[in-house]
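User: structure tokens for this one?
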Amino acid sequence: MAMFDAAQPGTERAAMIARIVRMAVMAVVAVAVLRFFWTYGTLRVQDWNDQMSPTLAPGDKALVHKGIRTIAQLGCGELIVYRVGNADGVTLRVGRIAAMPGDTVEVRPGGREVRVNGVVPAHAPVLLSAPEAREGAEAASVTRVPERAVYVLNDNLASELADSRKLGPIDEAAVAGKVVMSLMW
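Assistant:
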């Protein structure tokens, strides 16, 4: 006797239920995969010289959470991807949040030291081959981070790419996502 004999009505019904369950599971998996790629994406770090060294190097890939909608979903020390507009269009940059709305940021002459609310942050950027500070060259700049903005620094303060020291605080609307992890492939 065959396992799925048409003469056995219960077997036919069980086979139909099994097909429906398989289709439902496949639909749930498909929705989960689509949701993952809708919320997360990968970003290849290229043409950014050494702005985030040693954390990220040119050519590295990063998993980015693109579902960040407000500054409240972020915190100091986190890496974000943000948009910078210029004459050539909009480019994406990666930076570390140094200060949140309401914080006061002081950048010492030459950009060699950054203080947030009078203290060097625990997640302070590193200084890789920065130019020597010139004596009396400039006064420290002080910025109060406005609501719905963050102050972003490159991990390598000597990098030629601008961060909030030149661009000013990054508006909430310019935040494209939060770096979740660096991918090593």
